[in-house]
From TrEMBL:
This is Peptide methionine sulfoxide reductase MsrA. Coiled coil: none annotated. Belongs to the MsrA Met sulfoxide reductase family. It holds the Pfam family PMSR. Residues 5-155 form the Peptide methionine sulphoxide reductase MsrA domain.
Length: 176
């Protein structure tokens, strides 16, 4: 059975690269969510004035990877304690947020945040649980790491450490 989740944890190129490496993930789409401007563009979202976050829509096979595992991978591969930033990316468009598509996803998102907080004494996740309409990003943002990203100095600095976190903490769920 397939399920789809939407999460935002900084640059969508980076989050997309993480989930593309997970066994059972069938597709990952970069896009925008959580704002109040219809059909936003990358240029508009980058201003921070649309209210959107850069996010990813992840569709996965629930027989190979569970919803709690997906949320734990999300929480474990970015810094959910940073308000409106991930590294050098600063602004509400880079916030840590989960956009549940059902009551079950909302409950699992709350549980994932609680698990992260329990395992990181002295830190608290600022990850929000929000709703919003999904807008796919422009075509050139899709599968960015596989193409342009491996020639982009920003991606080369940010994505490999995220992939290392994924491999270290979720080794049994990572494609070889």
């Amino acid at each position: 059975m397939s399920e789809t989740v939407i999460v935002a944890g900084g640059c969508f190129w980076c989050t997309e690269a993480v989930f593309k490496d997970v066994i059972g993930v069938q597709s990952v789409e970069s896009g925008y969510i959580g704002g109040d401007v219809p059909n936003p563009t990358y240029k508009a979202v980058c201003t921070g004035n649309t209210g959107h976050a850069e996010g990813v829509k992840v569709t996965f096979d629930t027989e190979q990877v569970t919803l709690p595992e997906i949320y734990d991978m999300f929480m474990g591969t970015h810094d959910p304690s940073q308000l409106n930033r991930q590294g050098n990316d600063v602004g509400t468009q880079y916030r840590s947020a989960i956009f549940p598509l059902s009551d079950e996803q909302r409950a699992e998102a709350e549980a994932a945040i609680a698990r992260w907080n329990e395992s990181h004494e002295g830190q608290s996740a600022v990850t929000t649980i929000e709703s919003g309409e999904w807008y796919p990003a422009e075509d050139y943002h899709q599968e960015y790491w596989e193409g342009e990203g491996q020639r982009n100095p920003y991606c080369m600095a940010v994505i490999p450490p995220k992939l290392m976190k994924l491999r270290k903490s979720f080794a049994d769920k990572v494609k070889s």
